[in-house]
């Protein structure tokens, strides 16, 4: 953690110790605010009774709530490596893929009824709502 520098220096012919200190109070306060905000968001997401997961344009699952492993039977390590389509039975992949594409590329909000594919190949009926979230770049340019 960089809080300053301590260097030997020669000043007016004398060997001196030169210290440069940085006040990190504001940075530490902001870091704590971010940790608090993250804890709040995590508690809201994990408190949802429905399954919630997010993924990027490449199909990498980024985040999910506690209901996803409970409802699907997959472990967190498996979920993090899954393609979003793997949550659905194969016969529904074309329809779900089209819905995902509409959300990503056309910024549509939609609801899709489907079955969730469980780890043990059991299926549970679900209704999914999808909405594209803006990227960081899109949020910062707005």
Describe the structure.
By secondary structure, this protein is an alpha+beta fold. The chain folds into two domains: 38 residues, no CATH class; 92 residues, PAS domain (Beta-Lactamase), CATH 3.30.450.20. It is 37% helix and 27% strand. It contains five helices and six strands. The strands form three sheets. A two-stranded antiparallel sheet has the order 1-2. A hairpin with a 5-residue loop joins strand 5 and strand 6. The chain is elongated.
Order of helices and strands: EEHEEHHHEEH
- Based on secondary structure, the structural category is alpha+beta
Tally of extended strands? Answer: 6
Kindly report the name of the CATH homologous superfamily of the largest domain: PAS domain
The first-level CATH class name of the largest domain: Alpha Beta
**Unreliable parts:** none
- CATH fold annotation of the largest domain: Beta-Lactamase
CATH architecture of the largest domain: 2-Layer Sandwich
Overall number of domains: 2
Quote the distance from N terminus to C terminus: 33 Å
Instruction: Give me the side-by-side strand order of the main sheet.
Output: 1-2
* Largest β-sheet summary: 2 strands, antiparallel
Radius of gyration: 24 Å
Spatial shape: elongated
Q: Which range best describes the helical content: under 10%, 10-25%, 25-40%, 40-55%, 55-70% or over 70%? A: 25-40%
**Chain-averaged pLDDT:** 82
Keywords for this structure?
142 residues, alpha+beta, Beta-Lactamase, 2 domains, two-stranded antiparallel sheet, two-stranded antiparallel ribbon, elongated
